[in-house]
Description:
Distance between the termini: 12 Å
Number of domains: 2
Shape: globular
Strand content: 15-25%
CATH class of the largest domain: Alpha Beta
Number of strands: 7
CATH architecture of the largest domain: 3-Layer(aba) Sandwich
CATH superfamily of the largest domain: NAD(P)-binding Rossmann-like Domain
Strand order of the largest sheet: 3-4-5-2-6
Oligomer: single chain
Helix content: 25-40%
Bound molecules: flavin-adenine dinucleotide
Amino acid sequence: MPLHGFTRLFENMLNHPNIKVMLNTDYREIEKAIPCQEIVYTGPVDEFFDYHYGKLPYRSLDFYHETHNTQVFEPAPVINYPNQHLYTRVTEFKYLTGQEHSKTNIVYKFPKAEGDPYYPVPRPVNQEIYKQYKALVDATPEIYFVGRLATYKYYNMDQCVS
Ligand SMILES: Cc1cc2nc3c(=O)[nH]c(=O)nc-3n(C[C@H](O)[C@H](O)[C@H](O)COP(=O)(O)OP(=O)(O)OC[C@H]3O[C@@H](n4cnc5c(N)ncnc54)[C@H](O)[C@@H]3O)c2cc1C
């Protein structure tokens, strides 16, 4: 965890005179309005190339939040349930933040195939599709495809920040 948390980290990064933040804006809505020679693209690589070689599959999640009227809900910050439940993980946040409170918040994670693209599915057949997109990426040097969606690869936060 960054010393002052991720919110402060991103606020400090974005608090630069050359950076203007536009939320809820697809880059395609503004690409013609902002002429530039180079772009750093962090969106899905298949979307960028209009799904030319088909859609890259992702695993997604539903989150189910609960507040419990107890100091501590579970004996560890994260418990995985790989087999026996519809959910695969229960996270109790106060372990991670150090918050002290008489109640506690937890979240259940339910895996699903559709929805927001969270985790690339590491199967050879999907790597073959990605390889085709990568060839298009390599032929587009003025655009830097970075991050988990543009490289179809899972990263943890420490890998993204360092
Ligand atoms: C459910 C989940 C849980 C995770 N838990 C952990 C964890 O506990 N610990 C850990 O270390 N890591 C965790 N990670 C991983 C970590 O969150 C990611 O690796 C990290 O956020 C990736 O950063 P990124 O910049 O590559 O991509 P993102 O954070 O996804 O940033 C991509 C950005 O591109 C924007 N974008 C996409 N398409 C467009 C478009 N067309 N136009 C404009 N903008 C666009 C998106 O809005 C987004 O802001 C988790 C990831 C997920 C999905």
